[in-house]
Amino acid sequence: MTELVTDGLSYWALQSPGRAAIVFDGTDTVDYPTLDRWTDSAALHLAAAALHPGDRIGIIGDNSLEWIVSAIGALKIGVVVVPLNNRFTPEELRYLIEDSTPCLVLADDAHRDRITTAVEGSSIPVWRLEDFAALRHERHRKVARREDAHPDDITQIVYTSGTSSRPKGVIFTHRSTFNLVADFAIAEPAFRPGARIIYTLSMSGAPGLLWHILHPLTRGMTIFYERGFDAATTLHRLSAERIQIHCGVPVLYERMAADPEFPSADLSALELATIAGAPAPMSTMKSWLTKGVTVRQAYGMTELGGISSINPEEQAVSRPELIGCGTVFTRLRVVRPDGTDCDPDEPGEIIVSGPGIAPGYWRNDHAYSAAMRDGWFHSGDIGIKDADGIRVVDRLKDIIITGGFNVAPSEIEAVVAAIPGVIEVCVVSAFDPSFGEAPAAIIYTEGHLTPEAVTEHCRAHLAGYKVPRRVIVEHTPLPRMASGKIARRQIRDAHPELEKQTQAAG
């Protein structure tokens, strides 16, 4: 017998039957008992497909109650949930399908054609997510709690680009999920029964099902779950619903601060506001501070359970650039290549140890062994530690973080290199006023290739946020290092115009 990631929902359904579990898009309220019954019905519906504990199901769709209900229903019968990125092309989705080998894929009508193309040639059935809506009113049949589950049974596989052109499937278990919840319940008092939290982003990554659904449901909180992000709507929700917790990427805070209603919005209920995914502009932090809201820089990645450290509130005003040094049970260090700790103000790699770290990559033990060494996860980020905490200053790896999404340059480079006439290509980050960073492609060709042709090709093969926002065509070879590798940093430095506003890719 073990703790299960669905136990919190069942517990609060009994303890607080009148409490709202989810308020969807501001209009549809689902209390804890209703959500517990609905997910029981979803579990039985999925069981009819002869699914067994350990089998995988993929889920793709826009934000909806049916997405959450089907996922929790799967977890109740021991099925592993694989959130699929709803912005991926069929080509990108096909790799995730081939790697995770789901027995079933759930898709809403908006994404059905895309996923049908991705599973073409396989025997994987595709079910409609919308069909789970009718189960809300089905006569209740209780699903027996799984007493044979093990703490290390896999519950989710969340894919992330990482540092290569192929995404890696990050594994979450009952144990790692519970550890994450317990750690932050102790470290951050805002995560408490009855507290109100809002979520506006996609369900495809760790911030979705793990951080903003299972985490608050385990704590007995109320989730204001939005169909999507709209600055004016979210700002209104924070004010009118007296939201107490908001966790987001910089672009969300920037757009709300730019909204005409921001100066008059009542944000006095907001107790915890974290910003992660990329370093936050100080101007944005100051805008919220003028409203009496201390936005705290957080640090994490999918492998770390989403967030592994938050800048303490008492120093978030004086040192807003810091990310803290971990939590009650999670430790962060800054080390040299030989693993020894850096001196104060000496740059080094950030490594993390703690109970919420993912226990592995799906079918990729080699990659996990390379990242997890002697109990410490090597992030690939460069930081500087002083007496107050750690500041992230650079990345060992050349990942581009655009609007909170990780983009691997090598993936884009592979797509661009397939264009006839492209001899060399290097993808680097460019400044973007909306998303912090965006991809830029520098191409060497001896032909008549146009930036517009490159952009159109990328649109056909990549998710929108991966499409280069700047394309620079050159007619001389790109510089290389002595090792023969393209000199990425030299190329970036040779194009200072990339620090200026980028053109839209559409």
Percentage beta strand: 15-25%
> Any idea of the CATH topology of the domain at 400-499?
GMP Synthetase, Chain A, domain 3
Q: Distance between termini?
A: 51 Å
Oligomer: single chain
Write a short abstract of this structure.
The protein is of the alpha/beta class.
Notes on the protein architecture:
It is built from 14 helices and 24 strands. By secondary structure, it is α/β, with parallel strands linked by helices. It is globular, with a radius of gyration of 23 Å. The longest helix has 16 residues, at 32-47. α1 (7-15) runs parallel beside α7 (207-219), α2 (32-47) crosses α3 and α4 crosses α5 (112-118). The strands form 6 sheets. The chain has an 8-stranded mixed β-sheet, with helices on both faces. Strands 15, 16, 17, 18 and 19 form a 5-stranded antiparallel β-sheet that branches.
Kindly list the characteristics that best describe this protein.
single chain; about 500 residues; alpha/beta; 8-stranded mixed sheet; 5-stranded antiparallel sheet; 24 strands
What's the structural blueprint in terms of helices and strands?
Elements: H1 7-15, E1 20-24, E2 28-31, H2 32-47, E3 56-60, H3 65-76, E4 80-83, H4 90-100, E5 104-107, H5 112-118, E6 126-128, E7 154-160, E8 168-173, H6 174-187, E9 196-199, H7 207-219, E10 222-225, H8 231-240, E11 245-248, H9 250-257, E12 272-275, H10 282-289, E13 295-299, E14 309-310, E15 331-335, E16 348-353, H11 365-371, E17 372-373, E18 376-385, E19 390-395, E20 400-402, E21 405-407, H12 409-417, E22 422-432, E23 436-445, H13 451-461, E24 470-474, H14 488-493
Parallel strand pairs: 1-10, 3-4, 3-5, 5-6, 9-10, 9-11, 11-12, 12-13, 23-24
Antiparallel strand pairs: 1-2, 7-8, 13-14, 15-16, 16-18, 17-18, 18-19, 20-21, 22-23
